[in-house]
Amino acid sequence: MPSPKQPPVEPSPRFRFPSAYTILFALIVIVAALTWVIPAGQYQRAASEALGKDIPVAGTYAPTTSNPQGVFDLVLAPIAGFYDPVSYTANAIDVALFVLMIGGFIGVVTATGAIDSGIKRAMERLKGREKWMIPILMGLFALGGTTEGMAEETLAFYVLLTPVMIAAGYDAITPVAVILLGAGVGVLGSTVNAFSTVIASNAAGVPFTDGLILRLVLLAVTFIATVAYVMRYAARVKADPSKSLVFDQKAANEAHFRSTQEAGATNFTGLHKIVLLLFGATFAVMIWGVSLGGWWMAEMSALFLFAGIGIGLVGRLGEKGLVDAFVRGASDLLGVALIIGLARGIVVIMDAGHMTDTILHWAEGTVVGLNRIVFINVMYWIEVALSFFVPSTSGLAVLSMPILAPVGDFAGVSRSLIVTAFQSAEGIVNLVTPTSAVVMGGLAIARVPYDRWLRFVWPVLLGLTVIIMATLSIGVLLQGTPQ
Questions:
Q1: Can you tell me the distance from the alpha carbon of 441 to that of 179, in angstroms, rounded to the nearest whole number?
Q2: Mind listing the pLDDT tens digit for each residue in 84-103?
Q3: Residues of the chain below pLDDT 70
Q4: Whole-angstrom distance, CA of residue 117 vs CA of residue 269
Q5: Is the dihedral of CA 102, 107, 112, 117 positive or negative?
Q6: pTM
Q7: What are the Cα distances from residue 227, in Å, to 131, 155, 219, 421, 438?
Q8: What total number of domains does the chain contain?
Q9: From CA 305, how far away is CA 105, in angstroms rounded?
Q10: Domain range for residue 76?
Q11: Is the residue at 329 inside a domain?
């Protein structure tokens, strides 16, 4: 009797997509090489009292001394990504420290057992209704994005939401999509976001309320589209885990994010409730501090440090247990902190090579003489290209709006619509750009490889681009015929 036929063994793939560290260092090398090719140039700067910054002056671009970046600059770039080694000015060191404080804080809360037992209780209560977490949470993140440009502060939520989503039967991509797409669509459709719409409008010389209705429509349509996409993907994964784009990491991710204790071994005690109450209060204080208290990285880092100490004391971990838990939690996110420095190193190399203003000058000349609808859509794609080089929303607003917004006067396109094109472009690029600490840091925390995120998000990018270009074109038509 013939033996049963054995299933063929699939050979292991010869090519593996490089890690985030390799991708970022390769980009540093590429940008450094471009500094030898792209001519150096600069606009003259003038102080803006309204923005509190120096802004470029249109028509003042001139070539400047070339400063191509060599081998020593490449070696120094990852360090310079954290702080300027000459002036000791902070670059990304504050964001990296913030991430380490979050890690320590989560480590302490986890050590109390409150997160494990809390997730178990939440899943029991949500049984059969888990899918509604997605639109509710995405709505909250979108609200944060459209009002205050929620970005770096979202890093604190990946550690919290990833185990919750995995426990609900989803995969690690789902929480990344909820946070990154939720806040990202909010930024894309910014309404009163001081870091995007307000700064860009001031730099363009128009009130930030101009074009508000169109931006609200853009926000609503893009939000509905992204929520529908994420919910559809999450439902497929829950019904059949093999549909997950990170299915090969399922066991490893569950082991990393879910408790190793037996399901019934942890009771939800009164102490756990107190710890989770303090846990939630910490995030509420952070949101208040950023939106109303004028806080940024230093204040948020201090908050998570001392909240971790306080929760450790309440949770009765003892001095050694508290310190060990905090250090262990911080070490879990050390790789994320290193990624953040590498990402900023790309911008350091580009700025040192005096490339940015040259690229902006080329863009300025590209849109002259175009049809109005063509003009606004080309302006959108110019801002998309610039966003890869300048991942800071406020930084790109201050850089590009004083130069590109006045060009719209000659094309018969309102400056407010150019502001909308800017914020839409910046918002969509910041969903995927590897130069963003928010993208690379969030993916690293959730243990999602960059290539898997690209495979997940490309249909979203395509759909959002169609929506944005259609909205901008309609905006031009609604202006009527220029006088």
A1: 12
A2: 888 888 888 888 888 889 88
A3: 1-17, 20, 48-53, 116, 119-120, 122-124, 194, 258-266, 480-483
A4: 8
A5: positive
A6: 0.74
A7: 11, 20, 12, 22, 20
A8: 1
A9: 6
A10: 20-28+72-478
A11: yes
How much is the pLDDT for 229?
96
- Rounded Cα distance between 474 and 165, Å, is 38
Establish if 275 belongs to a structural domain: yes
The residue whose two tokens read 């639109």 is 135
In which region does residue 213 sit, left (phi positive, over 0), alpha (psi from -120 to 50) or beta (all else)? alpha
CA-nearest of 435, 431, 441 to 155 is 441
- The answer to whether residue 327 sits within a structural domain is yes
Structure confidence at residue 123 (pLDDT)? 65
In a domain, 373, yes or no: yes
Distance set, CA 479 to CA 404, 412, 413, 469, 476 (Å): 19, 9, 8, 16, 5
